[in-house]
From TrEMBL:
Pfam family, one: Sua5_yciO_yrdC
Organism: Phytohabitans houttuyneae
PROSITE patterns membership: YRDC (PS51163)
Molecular function per GO: double-stranded RNA binding
Name of the molecule in the record: Threonylcarbamoyl-AMP synthase
Residue ranges of every copy of the YrdC-like domain listed in the record: 54-240
Cross-referenced InterPro entries: DHBP_synth_RibB-like_a/b_dom, Sua5-like_dom, SUA5_domain
Amino acid sequence: MAASRRVAWPYQSAGWSDLTVAAVSGPAYRVEAGENYALSVAMYLEVHPDNPQPRSIRRVADVVRAGGLIAYPTDSCFALGCQMGNSGSLDRLREIRKLDANHHFTLVCRDFAQLGQLVKINNSVYRLIKAATPGPYTFILPATKEVPRRLMHPRKRTVGVRIPDHRVAQALLAELDEPLLSSTLLLPDQDEPMTNGQQIKQLLDHQIDAVIDSGDCGTEPTTVVDLSQDEPQILRAGAGDPSRFE
């Protein structure tokens, strides 16, 4: 097993003291009294859709900070999320979704202040995005130096960004105080994104570290708009009305 590092893992509230989590790229491991055993089940937390419990949000944020991979609700559908700079969690996300090198990842932001640090925006693009956010849109734009190169499109050096209109997602982003690397929770053998938190836990129990459930989400992913060129281009029509960009 890889060398271990000390972290404050969110299971402390369930009776765990300080835990040691091994720095492995797969599911997290925990150690107590000298014994190693796999964290074989994902943390499952039900939260209120309009008033998410702060304690639950903090626990999930701690999972993300410790390198965990989570499933969480948005204003379009469930998404997988992890820290922007954590390569191990990114590899796990890629494996679950079977993503190739050309996939546009999305950086989910709390507000325009965060978004503006990650992508290059001129005045006309700013007005377009401002009119459509928060909401179920993902915008493809040239990335700044704040974005790790492994998250950019290999040729275009672009990345997806969005600001969700969902209270649970916003509460999590506020607690993290950093963007969340995300991808729609659409599995390779499925035609539509997963919508039920309990089903997500059952299916991905050994592959992710936490599930936030605030009730069923929709089945449409975001509308993806490429704003990296002179004219907007709709790459995917989804939950957001694409006509405003046509």
